[in-house]
C-alpha cells in the first residue's frame, strides 16, 4: 500500500472524501493586535465568494498582515475599511503563530490565505460559471497581458481591466471615469490591485457606488499573472519565509516594511499578551455556527457520509464542483469562442 496524492491507495478501497466544513466556530473569528480577522482556508474563501455571486450580493473580502496593521496606526479611513469588510483573511504566518501563542489553539498553517493560495481554483470557477471579473490596477498594459494569459486556459472567465494610473480623488473626472467603466461592465467580482493602502482606500470611498459584486483587494495579483513579478514559492509561504524572498528581490522598497514596521506593533503585542491570560486559562466551550451566507449541507454530509469526490479525484474540476456546485452559469463557451479579455 502506498500513499498517493489523493490518499491511501492499494488494497484498501477509496473512501468518500469528507467535504470541507461549511460551518464556522466562534473562536475562528479572532481579535489579534486590536483587529478582527477570520481563520479561513482558501476553499472557504472561495465558497464565500461563490455564494455571494450566486445570490447577487455585495461583499468585501479583505486581508490583514503586519504591514496593514502598521498602516492602520493613525489612519481612521483605513480602519473604517476593515470595519466594513465581511471577511478578513490572515495573510501572515507570524500572525498565525501569534494567534496560537496567545491561546487561539485552532490557528494552523493552512489558515494563511491570500490570492496566491486560491488563484487557480478561483479562475477555474470563473471559467466554469462564466463570471465577469474586473481587475483595476497595475501599470498600463500589464493587466491586459495578465487577462490574455488567463484567457488561454480559462476562456470562460470574462475579464475586463483598467490600469491603476488615475486620479482617485472622489468626484474627480478620473475617479468617475473608472467608476463608470466598472459599473458598465457589471462585474460579479471586482479585484483591486493598487497596493496597500491605496486599494483599500479606493474601495472604501467607492464601495457604495458600485453595482453589487464581491470586491477583493489583491495587490500585485495581475503582475504575477502577467509574469512581470515573480511570486515566492508556496512552500516559503507555508514556512513563513515569503517576506524573505520578497525582501531579497526588492530590498530598497521593502526594507522598511519588513525590518522596521513590525517594531511599531510592540505595544499591541504586549496588550494581546495581557488580555490572553484568562483565555489561555479556560478556553470557551466549542460551538458551531453557520458561516455567513453559506448554504446548509445535510447532517450526513457534515459527518463525511454524504456526497463528495473520492480521494483520488482532486482535479480542479472536482474542487470547483465542491466549492461552487450551484452557482448560476450563463452558458458554456461556444465551440471556437475566443478568450474574452476586454480592455477598458
Automatic annotation (TrEMBL):
Region called Disordered, residue ranges: 1-21, 279-344
A GO MF label: hexosyltransferase activity
Biased composition (Basic and acidic residues): 279-301, 335-344
InterPro entries cross-referenced by the UniProt entry: WecG_TagA_CpsF (IPR004629)
Keywords of this entry: Glycosyltransferase, Transferase
Secretion signal, residue range per the UniProt entry: none
Family matches, as NCBIfam families: wecG_tagA_cpsF
UniProt KW Glycosyltransferase keyword: yes
Pfam families in UniProt: Glyco_tran_WecG
Protein name: Glycosyltransferase
Protein species of origin: Caulobacter mirabilis
Superkingdom, natural source: Bacteria
